[in-house]
Amino acid sequence: xxxxIDFIGDTExxxxxxxxxxxRVLTVFNQGGMMRIDQVNVFGKKLWLLHTGEEEVGSDRKTxxxxxxxxxxxxxxxxxxxxDSNSASIGSGKVGGLHFARVLYAAQVLxxxxxxxxxxxLYNGCIVDARELTGWLNHLFDEQYTNARVWDIWKTALLxxxxxxxxxxxxxxxxxxxxxxxxxxxxxxxxxxxFAAYSPEIVRAFVLEDGARAYGCQDENGxxxxxxxxxxxxxxxxxxxxxxxxxxxxTIERLKNMLKSGSASQEELHSEQKTLYKELAFYQGxxxxxxxxxxxxxxxxxxxxxxxxxxxxxxxxxxxxxxRVFDGNKKPRPIRKVSTETFLNVTGDDRAxxxxxxxxxxxxxxxxxARLAAWQLExxxxxxxxxxxxxxxxxxxxxxxxLDGVRKLDRFxxxxxxxxxxxxxxxxDARRQALVVLLRRLSERCRKNRKTDETGKEEGADNAxxxxxxxxxxxxxxxxxxxxxxxxxxLRKKALGV
Length: 498
Prior knowledge:
This protein is α+β, with helices and mostly antiparallel strands. The protein has three domains: 5-145, no CATH class; 192-327, no CATH class; 350-487, no CATH class. The protein has helices at 15-31, 99-112, 131-141, 148-151, 153-162, 168-172, 188-198, 200-209, 226-243, 248-261, 271-284, 289-300, 304-314, 324-327, 340-344, 366-384, 392-409, 417-425, 430-448, 473-487, 489-496; strands at 5-9, 34-42, 45-51, 54-57, 61-69, 74-83, 88-92, 119-123, 415-416. Strands 2, 3, 4, 5, 6, 7 and 9 form a seven-stranded mixed sheet that branches. A two-stranded antiparallel sheet has the order 1-8. A hairpin with a 2-residue loop joins strand 2 (34-42) and strand 3 (45-51). Helix 5 (153-162) packs across helix 7 and helix 17 runs parallel beside helix 19. The radius of gyration is 32 Å and the shape is elongated. The two termini are 48 Å apart. Mean pLDDT is 83; it is low at 172-184, 210-217, 452-456 and 460-470.
């Protein structure tokens, strides 16, 4: 049991695009809050420290292992991105259904735009709506990515069939036509191929709707009209069977050869039959092939997939010769950009760790700036009193005790690894010592201002055994943001002067 993400189809990325792909996957992981947690033992305290997880393995091989998402504030089974100069792979175990899963799925969808051929990311073996996360990718990289899986749904269906993926539920809701797309953002020829194979009643409806009309298949501008074109092609098959002088089996074989080669032997046909075959050969050049296969299967009582597999073995292409008849000059539209805050449903304050001056898009709120100013004043006051700890061991012990106490308020309150080692290395700096003193004060206030429910029981008291869960939720939120500021060296320097 559990939720998983997979990738099926072509996974090979062209050499000239591999470096950019690797950099962008790491950006997706970073901006999406994907991290790992390292454990260190200091003065008998187990401390848990966050970092992004990128490490070097050998001279050319690198890996990024993550199992925690900062915004979801939860852990899942390890996800691994490995790469070298020749390849790149993304693997994962159980991913849940929130931020960890969404970010990992975004990284796999990104792969769809880089592989040489055609591949697709799956969630629990199914295709899910990728519009919002594609919009997020467009935001991160200033791209014009489209929802290509919607544009060519027949190619998608073939991929699912090739890998024996579940498709019935996907078809039953017609998720890709047209509820997930705006007008003109899907390929009608591909859609007709898809429905001819999996939902023939839709294709038949095209014919029934105008079945009684005359067979005029072009408008005054010479453009073929979809319904009339399909209707005429369907009626040609009926007329063929009625006019045939050879056996039913011979007629079927002649039509199969036409579908395979684009033409059929007409030497032994009388004039009426020759006219019908020439007309059908013309429509074969403009109608999606699956539609003709479906019409033929309906007319002669054949199995669609058996006929499709036989024809495809000789002529693998599924698009009509001139798809402009159905699609015109339409192309899939780029998905509108979606900000990180919208995609992850977070605020700029929640993303304080990612704030960068001049080059970032994290906007802090007035309330956050007020807190930063208050923290700076308190740090100034503490530092003005001189060193709080006379030697490095006492400082390190106090740091470990403080971080251990913070985590007892909430088991998912973590400091960042770089922060820990920066404080340890520069312990003689009075302002860095003040950061630790303030952290202890904030945690004590958080405990002091804890909330209780109607029975007087402390909220969160049923947390994991290694925490007492007595933190005030609102104060815990600000305590977590303070830890984020400590981890963001640039913001810390600018706002707190350390």
